[in-house]
Structure formats: structure tokens, C-alpha cells
Design goal:
The chain is mainly α. Helix content is about 65%, strand content about 5%.
Length: about 425
């Protein structure tokens, strides 16, 4: 499939999604699932197409359906923000103001700089639209939304496995226009919702085991270290502080994963895990990482990011790869001028201490707005911790799915809070 065909597909399908949601407000709660489906099912027989190429005006084509789904919520509900979210809203404005100054004034008025900054504004709009919409939605409908999200996830994983087995794809990535690291962020982020459905008695034990089996097999066949670590982390966090029986379930799941690692996919996934172990051992023992090691480039990029942070400590380089690369070439002549594949390092370098502190406080308020761990919705905070861990291995903070997803969970969490005061932002 050519780029022009993909562009036509995503523009047309996103427009139809927008019309479909607005034509019947009862469809609005499921907009997240519809957008995901557009990235999976119609493209099932398509080979992988690089996200770096599959773009329209610098926007990854795969992001467009979710952006449109988020915007559609503006037209089906009044945007009202509860009083308890006022500080979170304030820090969103502060972040946008600060990043605009450092990116556009210090970094330069370029289209790429503006597009990168604007992407944050779009994601904040999607987040607040989801928060406002789901905070006023009946909790029973919200539970159905979670259920259908999990169904799409599991079916997507099955499709990914079939794509790999049939030879359509070199791995089990079920979103062919999304980088596999972006796919595993969504999978690991949504993984705790399966345990939520089981705890809510929506899912039987047999179905739980089946879903976990399918998802873990998919992650292993994607050959993703970060995805495997993220899913295991989510399972451990969800069950760790509870009964012995729950802990045994986690051990059983972990054993299942180990079985997969040494059955069929061991040559790739085991090698990558060994690479991680060897690199960590060398660093711990203070030995030099040589160019023949698999993680040589990654570690050099990390070292470079530390140098960039040192030179731009307070205010950063400004958002975007363009500004990052300018600072990169000032500190090193290393041939690969890429980011460090670590959200915390890359964004500290781009934002500096001031901007990164604002962003961390913002994310802390998002976390506090989620249902507490003691509630039946503890999976929501577990999802947050999963993403927090996975951001040490990638930089997919700007994926619209992440902001829509957590906006949805924050809105649903308001059902478990007693505060009913709200402030009208836009009527």
C-alpha cells in the first residue's frame, strides 16, 4: 500500500468516525474503541509501514482517528471541569505557556517546533474532553466501555499473532502503521483492566487466564523487552498487596511467561533479555561498553542526553527533535543524533528543571485524580504506574491514546469521589 492510499484511508475513516459518533450520542462513550479498531481491523493484512513515513503534515497517520475521537466528545457534551481538577488544569496552562516560550522564542519559530508544541495542546484538549464526558456518564456505561476496550485489545493481540504466524509481519504487532514500541505501550497500559473486569465479576477465571495467555503470547512474539516488563509489572502491582491466593496467580502468570520465553520465541526474546542483563552487569561493575554490544548505541545516547541536560539545565533546549538535535551536536560528534529512548532524560533535556518540574507536578495530579488503590478500580492507578515504568524505555508520551485513556479513567474515577462541585469552562 502506498502512502497516498494510507492518507486517504485515515482521513476518510476518521471523518466517517466523527460523523458516526455525532449522529448518535450513545456511540460517544465508545469513541476510544472505534478509533483503536480503525488502526487494527481494516489493516490486518497489511505489512508494516514506518511511522516516520506514514504522516500527514508531520502528524503520524495512526494518531488521527484517536484525535478525531477525542474532539468528537466536545460536540456531545458541555465541557465542565470539577473543582477538584482546577489545579491540574492550571498546570496544563502553565506547561503550555512555559513550553511555548522556550520552544518558539528560544528555539525559533519553525513549523516543526510549532507542530511539536501544538501536539501537547491537542492531547490536553483530548484529555479534558474525556475527563468531562466520562465524569458525567453513568457508571454502568463506563464499565461497558472498559469491557469493550479489553475485547478490542484481546482480538487485536490474536490478529497480531496470526499476522506473525502467517508471515505477513516479522513480529506480532497488530497495528501495522504504529511502531511496535507504541503498540506495546497501549497493550501494557491496558493490561491491568483485565484484572479489573475479573475482580468486578465481569470475567470468569477461565476467560481471565485465556486473555492473559493471548496478551502475553502477543507481547513475546512482538519481541519487546519493555512490553514484557510492563505487563509483568502491572500484574505484580495489581496483586502484590493482597492475599496469598492473588500472589499465587501472579506467580502462575510469571511462570507462563517464562514458559513462552523458552518455547518457540526464545531465540529473539531470550537474547534481548540477555543483552539487557549483560549491559546492566557491565555498568554495575564499571566496565566499558564496547561497540560490538547490542545496547552500545542506546547507552551512548543516554550519555549524550546527560551532557545536554548539563548544558541546558534550567530551561532546556525547547520541545522537539529539531531543538534537541541542535543541542546534541554542540556536545558530541556521535553519528546517531537521536533521543535516548527514555522519556525522563529526553524531556528533562528539552524542558529543563523548570519545565520538567511543571510536567511532573501535572502528572502527579493526574495520578491523584485516579481511583485509589483500595477501591475496586485500583487497576487505574496500576495502569499509570505501568506507563511510568515504560517511559524509562521509550518516549511515547505524546501518543493520543495515552491522554484519551487516562482522561477516560480520571472521569470514571470521579464516580468514586464524593465531590460534585464543578466549574463551567465552556458551555
Amino acid at each position: 500500500m502506498k502512502l497516498i492510499h494510507l492518507q486517504i484511508y485515515f482521513i476518510l475513516s476518521s471523518f466517517l468516525l466523527f460523523v458516526f459518533v455525532l449522529s448518535n450520542k450513545r456511540r460517544a462513550p465508545f469513541a476510544f474503541g472505534y478509533a483503536l479498531a480503525l488502526n487494527i481491523f481494516p489493516l490486518s493484512f497489511m505489512s508494516y509501514f514506518s511511522m516516520d513515513i506514514a504522516r500527514l503534515a508531520s502528524i503520524p497517520l495512526a494518531y488521527i482517528p484517536m484525535m478525531v475521537a477525542g474532539f468528537s466528545l466536545f460536540f456531545v457534551t458541555k465541557l465542565r471541569i470539577r473543582k477538584e481538577y482546577e489545579r491540574l488544569l492550571l498546570f496544563c496552562f502553565l506547561f503550555l505557556l512555559y513550553s511555548f516560550i522556550t520552544t518558539m522564542f528560544l528555539g525559533g519559530f519553525t513549523f516543526r517546533n510549532f507542530a511539536y508544541w501544538f501536539a501537547w495542546g491537542v492531547n490536553f484538549l483530548i484529555f479534558w474532553a474525556a475527563v468531562s464526558f466520562f465524569s458525567s456518564l453513568d457508571i454502568k456505561i463506563s464499565h461497558r466501555v472498559i469491557k469493550y476496550t479489553v475485547i478490542i485489545l484481546v482480538i487485536g493481540c490474536i490478529i497480531g499473532i496470526l499476522r506473525y504466524v502467517s508471515g505477513i509481519s516479522l513480529d506480532a504487532n497488530f497495528m501495522p502503521v504504529v511502531n511496535k514500541n507504541g503498540t506495546v505501550v497501549f497493550v501494557a497500559m491496558s493490561f491491568p483492566l483485565i484484572f479489573y473486569l475479573y475482580s468486578s465479576r465481569v470475567m470468569s477465571k477461565t476467560l481471565l487466564i485465556t486473555c492473559v495467555f493471548v496478551i502475553m503470547l502477543n507481547i513475546i512474539l512482538i519481541f519487546s523487552r519493555s512490553g514484557l516488563i510492563g505487563c509483568l509489572w502491572g500484574g505484580l502491582l495489581y496483586f502484590f498487596r493482597f492475599s496469598f491466593k492473588d500472589i499465587m496467580i501472579v506467580i502462575a502468570i510469571a511462570s507462563l511467561c517464562v514458559l513462552f520465553v523458552f518455547f518457540g520465541a526464545e531465540q529473539k526474546i531470550e537474547q534481548r533479555l540477555h543483552n539487557t542483563y549483560d549491559t546492566a552487569t557491565y555498568l554495575y561493575e564499571g566496565e566499558e561498553i564496547t561497540s560490538d554490544m547490542q545496547d552500545f548505541n542506546r547507552l551512548n545516547l543516554i550519555y549524550c542526553s546527560f551532557n545536554i541536560i548539563e548544558n541546558n539545565f534550567l530551561f532546556g533546549t525547547g520541545l522537539g527533535l529539531e531543538n534537541y538535535r541542535k543541542a546534541f551536536h554542540k556536545v558530541t560528534n556521535y553519528g546517531i543524533d537521536s533521543k535516548a529512548h527514555n522519556f525522563y532524560l529526553s524531556y528533562f533535556a528539552e524542558l529543563g528543571l523548570v519545565g520538567f518540574s511543571i510536567l511532573m507536578v501535572l502528572l502527579a495530579y493526574v495520578f491523584r485524580s485516579l481511583a485509589p488503590m483500595k477501591s475496586e478500580c485500583r487497576a487505574f492507578r496500576v495502569s499509570f504506574w505501568v506507563v511510568a515504568l515504560m517511559m524509562t524505555m521509550n518516549e511515547y508520551i505524546l501518543v493520543p491514546e495515552v491522554w484519551f485513556y487516562f482522561g477516560m479513567l480520571v472521569g470514571i474515577s470521579s464516580f468514586y469521589k464524593n465531590t460534585k462541585k464543578s466549574v463551567a469552562v465552556w458551555d
